[in-house]
Give the backbone structure.
Amino acid sequence: MNLALVHDWLNQIGGAEDVLVDLVNLYPESPLYTSLYALDIMPSFYRDWDIRTLWTDKLPTIYQHHQPYLPLYPLAWQGLNLSDYDVILSNKSGFCHGLQFDAKNTIHICYCLAPTRYVWQLDSYIKREGIGKIAEIALRPLINMMKNWDYAAAQRVTHFIAISTEIQERIQTYYSRESAIIYPPVDTTRFTPVASSEVEDYFLIVSRLIPYKRIDLAVEAATRLGLPLKIGGKGRDMQRLQAMAGETVEFLGYVPDDDLPQLMAKAKAFIFPGLEDFGITPVQAEAAGRPVIAYKGGGALDTVISGVTGEYFAEQTVDSLAAVMQSIDATQYAPDTIRNHALKFDTAIFKQQIASFVQQAWQAHQLQQSFVWHDPITQKI
């Protein structure tokens, strides 16, 4: 089976790139196609990969400022034809699903991190990414045209895989397509529960400090209640959050990878106040045996079990979150039970499910049969 990997762009490191690393490890002989590759920005081990870029890689200052070029991405991706491959596996949040291929001989499996946000959720994307006013004014007239292109491109994809129930619903809403769910990989082996005597009396957040993460809710709630809250991470919202924080709120800045497991394991509970597509950090906290307080929406609905691995707060308000922070009794949650739940999101599970999906889909295509995926982990269809 001749397989090609596809990824939108390589000029930043985040959850999408974590997924990509595991896909490359799963298919190390496969070339990787991307719109741009900032070699000096990305990790050095990427240089061992067979990375093939589009013509957009040559555009001036695109590595540092790729957003102004967004209208060009559909044109670039639709000019890429990968009909020489048996299987195309794309890791998509932008427009890379719009590539061309011969549907008689090739299948395209799209691992969908999200339907293109700046097309279908422009207002929230502008808020999320801090897009400047000039860029916003330039983008808006193009959105309807880009929606039509994006929708048409989604119809050419052979099979969609969603990262969560939230994304599965968006794929159906925006693309009118069905999808399977395979959760993103989480390295749960890094995290281990500590003895109950080692658990300390602080709530914890680890996140980029940007407005849509709604960390302000936790800062205000902890300040009002006089409860200790540690916040790990950096971002443009730091000064605003510090200004509203009381004496019980501590900003840790960047937390080194080696320090994160113990910080998670010793926390009273982890707080996840934003609305996310999935959310890696709550699963990491659960792998460390700690309960999670999460907003009842988005990916948290897949990763948190109320009364078992944590609790939800129903509204994104200070009052709603404060009520749960004040009432939660962390000793009532069994660390081993919480960790066992987290293991279903482990990297090994992800790789097994992806490999099974690809193999079954390709075999069905060869036999010209309708494809119904049988999950090797859950044995569900």
